[in-house]
Design goal:
By secondary structure, the chain is mainly α. The protein contains five helices and three strands. The model has no long low-confidence stretch (mean pLDDT 84).
Length: 131
Amino acid sequence: MAATQKSASAFRTIGELADELGLPQHILRYWETRFPQLRPLQRAGNRRYYRPDDVALAKRINLLLNRDGYTVKGVQKLLSSGIATTPPAPEVQKPEPQPIQPTPTVPLQELRAIRDRLAKALAADDVAARI
């Protein structure tokens, strides 16, 4: 039975949880060595079974590391302080981007006249500075 068809209270194997998170299984095994809070049940043959709390914790670790940009050490600190054990806040919808207002168009002749006046003013300042 696929992980998506299981009850929310059902245990997950490492393969099911890895598929659900979109991660390789060795990453979950690595997390078990770095986060003492993540301790799945291990049955005969070292087969791992993740309880619902373990699944929620693995999802939280995944979000902190891969979405929020925390380091492993940073997530360890959050978990040990108890901050990261609370579920993540719901996503806030970003406001619609405002359309860019068109800039007023200035006739090319007027722009050239401004450029020429600026060039003359700078040349006059340059001449005055040499005197």
